[in-house]
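Ticket #393: bound-state structure for flavin-adenine dinucleotide.
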Amino acid sequence: MDINFTPEDEAFRAEVRAFIEENQPQHLKGVRRGEYRNKEDFLVWHRILYKKGWLVPSWPAPYGTNWTPTQKYIWNEENARAETPAILPFGVSMVGPVIYTFGTQEQKDKYIPGILSGDVWWCQGYSEPGAGSDLASLKTTAVREGDYYIVNGQKTWTTLAQFADWIFCLVRTDKNAKAQEGISFLLIDMKTPGITVKPIITMDGGHEVNEVWFDNVKVPVENRIHEENKGWTCAKFLLSHERAGIAGVARSKRAISRLKDMLAMEVIDGEKLIDDADFERKIAELEIDLTALEFTELRTLASEQAGKGPGLESSILKIKGTEIQQRITELVMEGVGYYSLPYSDPLSHNEFAPGPAYAEGTTQNYANMRKTSIYGGSNEIQRNIIAKMVLGL
Ligand SMILES: Cc1cc2nc3c(=O)[nH]c(=O)nc-3n(C[C@H](O)[C@H](O)[C@H](O)COP(=O)(O)OP(=O)(O)OC[C@H]3O[C@@H](n4cnc5c(N)ncnc54)[C@H](O)[C@@H]3O)c2cc1C
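RESOLUTION: The complex was predicted; output attached.
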């Protein structure tokens, strides 16, 4: 396997780098999502990439870029290096692929343009208070009445639903069938009467997740993707895309490089932390694990190129990727020591952060990143999937 870049790849890298330098929204460079000031902050980079035609490199024709796996890899690396805003996954990485794979031509024509332009914001209505890991036990019902479904129930942990125009939902359309066989995939306009969004404030003080309640919500039957009671097929397809995207290898590389810069500035008893043997060992272990993950990600990209969607390897990517992200935040915490104690509340903007600038937000980031091993299907569940489907246990 040749892992050197060709002159064409290097030319592509130069083109991407120049484009990012010229167009990246400077006020969001390296800014955490929890610190975005408004809805537009989430969308500005999305709109710039859409205009350029580089928003959805992995989508098939006629939407995608037709880049090689190496070009996609370079694209991710350059974005991480420049600390551009991450693109929201709900439209482009979740419901979009479901619609272009399972939707009718009419549905593609209706929904895809808004996903690509960023004019329509989507959220994900999968989890319920009694249905997280055991998603197939979901209880939100959709009862057919003529050309409509009447939807009743509650979704929870719905990320950024406070901004959403539409929600894609898993609903129960047959109570008597086996759990997985009585589920349908519905697209619901958030302005429909009977929908209530209630905020959940998390331990980092942020408002990222919500409860979404449905009280006799009338949804046209034409908003169902795929056949009635075949929603589980769409659900699983979407989850493998979601999991593969959570790995975040390029951004972890950037985070480790930031960590090293930070440790080079931290001096304790006259010694730079970067020269501390124990820290050196921890960083080396992280980098080895990240390199191994990077090659797994490259294999996934290559098999996507061969027409295969992300399969079971998405569970491996998800576990290792999120463990590495969490280990980085733990090392930052350990590195800055007591400077991590001052805590600024992103809601009240009551900032109190003595100590060096690089230590700011350490605690929030540490707390916020605990979520990564839970969402997209917890890491314990991914291990069960690997045990059953890969190891045959
Ligand atoms: C920040 C955040 C954002 C989220 N955003 C969304 C969103 O936008 N839309 C959405 O639909 N959902 C969202 N989720 C929900 C997420 O998908 C669920 O939290 C996740 O699937 C786990 O479900 P649960 O919280 O009900 O935990 P539970 O299923 O109750 O699990 C509790 C614990 O038990 C473990 N466990 C459960 N079953 C098993 C088993 N069989 N074997 C071994 N261990 C097991 C789990 O790993 C976990 O540690 C979000 C979650 C978080 C934290």
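RESOLUTION NOTES: Residues 123-127, 132-133, 157-159, 209, 371, 374-375, 377-378, 380-381, 384 surround flavin-adenine dinucleotide (CB under 6 Å).
TICKET STATUS: resolved
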